[in-house]
Amino acid sequence: MQKYKNILRLVILLVLFTAACSPESRYKVLSFIFDGVPEPDFSDNIAANDSVLTSDSTNILNIAENNKTKIFFHQPYLDKDCNSCHSNNNMGQKIKTQPELCYTCHENFEDEYAVIHGPVAGGYCTDCHDPHKSKFPELMLREGKDICLKCHDPQIVESDIHSLVEINDCVSCHNPHGEENPFLLKKGSCYVCHDNFSEKYKYLHGPVAGGFCNSCHDTHSSESEYKLLLTGQKLCYKCHTEKAVLGNENHEGIDDVNCTECHNPHGGDDKYLFN
Ligand code: HEC
Ligand code: HEC
Ligand code: HEC
Ligand code: HEC
Ligand code: HEC
Ligand code: HEC
Ligand code: HEC
Ligand code: HEC
Ligand code: HEC
Predict the structure, then answer these.
(1) For residues 259 and 198, is the Cβ–Cβ distance under 8 A?
(2) Which residue of 146, 229, 258, 260 is 20 to 30 Å from 252, comparing CA positions?
(3) How many Å lie between the centroid of ligand 6 and the Cα of residue 117?
(4) Which atom of ligand 3 is found nearest the CA of 103?
(5) How far is the CA of 97 from the centre of ligand 3 (A)?
(6) Which atom of ligand 2 is least distant from the CA of 131?
(7) Rounded Cα distance, 120 and 178, in Å
(8) pLDDT tens for residues 52-106?
């Protein structure tokens, strides 16, 4: 248990570290030090704050000197390219509905991932992101796990798997938009809790090296032993052909023998992954 916690702390530190420095560089100089002005209000005050941007740049700097809050701007908003999203004569009106509005400039997540997160598929980008600016990196409406707990029951943190780690940042394991894996699990997230096979073995089995744990394992809800999708030789014949395997003289008489009697499914110290 202590091991899980230490590993997770490290992951969280890394996440915090990247969160702390990448937005600045990506946004170039998009963060301003505001002063005296109330913290940005996302629900009703966007238009009022816009005067800051639509007036001249001295105005921005004057205000910036008096406040300690960092503001992250969306590039087209900062560029006053309002019409890329709004119709010319009505700022409240959008030229397209979401997610198409966002996909005019951003990559379509549907093209990228097999599994799409509910609100992303539904086009509710602005349930998580502010389209103009935010005091949090990545234009988030709320910070860290709070954005997830806006819709997901906070009880999730107490649930079987999650109770095992000090959950701080959900996105260290889950991709907020989509993934190739069920439960939006990022590649490598299994190693937050399980032994990292690449540290343990000299040679890694193909799918393990690729991070495709789910090509053999179901998630933790599975009742089968070791949470396996298939049992015995069937699991291996999902990818290896029976003809090739049985054609190898070393495999004579293995009909009733489990492949894992000789081979380790994850890795080994030689290329044939012997136990
Ligand atoms: C990237 C697209 C995008 C750009 C660029 C953009 N907006 Fe918006 N704007 C939106 C969206 C989306 C909403 C609706 C917000 C929501 O549904 O939560 C919105 C809402 C608004 C509203 C209504 C107020 C509100 O809270 O709903 C005003 C006014 C507004 N924008 C003004 C502007 C101005 C002025 C600019 C240029 C400086 C601008 N917008 C640039 C996407 C954009
Ligand atoms: C007119 C083009 C345009 C549209 C439309 C647009 N964006 Fe952006 N967006 C950008 C640019 C440019 C950047 C900054 C460059 C970058 O990192 O990709 C950016 C950055 C972002 C970022 C931060 C990314 C980062 O790397 O820090 C988020 C989040 C984001 N946009 C969300 C949205 C959402 C949500 C919508 C739809 C409401 C939207 N965008 C619509 C152009 C656009
Ligand atoms: C459930 C909340 C949520 C929804 C809905 C959501 N995002 Fe995000 N988005 C995030 C989080 C969290 C991050 C920061 C990711 C990280 O730190 O790893 C992010 C990051 C981003 C980024 C910058 C990093 C990247 O992955 O490119 C862009 C651009 C972006 N989102 C666009 C969108 C668009 C477009 C939509 C709608 C189609 C959308 N998001 C819907 C939570 C969300
Ligand atoms: C706007 C509401 C909303 C927000 C915010 C939100 N989610 Fe979700 N999430 C959903 C919906 C809706 C589903 C689909 C529900 C389902 O299929 O059972 C879902 C599904 C999921 C699933 C997959 C569950 C499954 O059974 O496959 C995971 C994992 C998840 N969300 C994690 C997150 C994380 C992490 C965040 C924060 C970055 C987040 N969610 C923020 C609404 C939200
Ligand atoms: C938050 C910590 C955590 C994460 C992340 C995690 N697991 Fe687990 N896993 C556990 C715990 C605790 C158990 C033992 C309890 C159980 O059987 O459900 C377990 C059990 C298992 C087992 C069964 C082991 C046995 O001896 O029967 C397999 C297989 C497994 N996990 C695979 C995975 C895979 C694949 C991933 C990534 C998709 C993953 N785990 C991510 C905590 C985690
Ligand atoms: C090629 C199929 C396959 C892949 C891919 C795979 N596993 Fe396994 N895994 C197995 C089999 C089979 C067992 C049962 C072990 C046995 O029979 O000795 C197992 C057992 C386990 C166990 C419990 C026993 C142990 O060795 O600790 C864990 C935990 C586990 N796997 C995690 C993972 C993780 C994490 C990944 C991805 C990095 C992964 N597995 C990828 C087939 C696979
Ligand atoms: C250490 C990695 C890790 C972190 C951090 C994490 N999760 Fe998960 N989560 C998992 C794994 C693994 C599963 C798959 C559960 C299973 O195998 O049954 C999962 C499943 C889920 C599911 C779908 C299944 C369910 O129980 O409803 C949701 C929703 C979810 N997580 C939300 C969250 C939220 C919200 C946070 C942040 C508070 C979070 N997760 C943080 C590893 C993680
Ligand atoms: C998801 C697909 C997949 C599954 C399931 C799978 N394998 Fe593999 N296996 C591969 C890939 C890909 C390689 C790498 C092929 C290569 O490098 O020639 C590989 C390589 C191997 C090798 C090394 C071959 C060599 O020449 O170096 C052995 C041994 C092996 N697998 C045994 C097994 C066993 C035993 C099982 C069942 C527990 C299994 N595989 C299940 C995809 C899979
Ligand atoms: C009795 C032990 C044993 C069992 C059981 C066994 N293997 Fe092997 N396997 C070997 C040996 C020995 C080699 C050959 C190493 C060499 O060529 O030096 C090998 C090689 C392989 C290779 C790489 C060479 C090739 O033919 O492509 C694969 C893949 C493989 N085995 C898959 C499997 C699968 C799948 C099963 C289960 C159906 C299985 N093995 C069961 C001992 C075994």
Answers:
(1) no
(2) 229
(3) 26
(4) 35
(5) 17
(6) 38
(7) 8
(8) 443 333 333 333 444 567 899 999 999 999 999 998 777 778 889 999 999 999 9
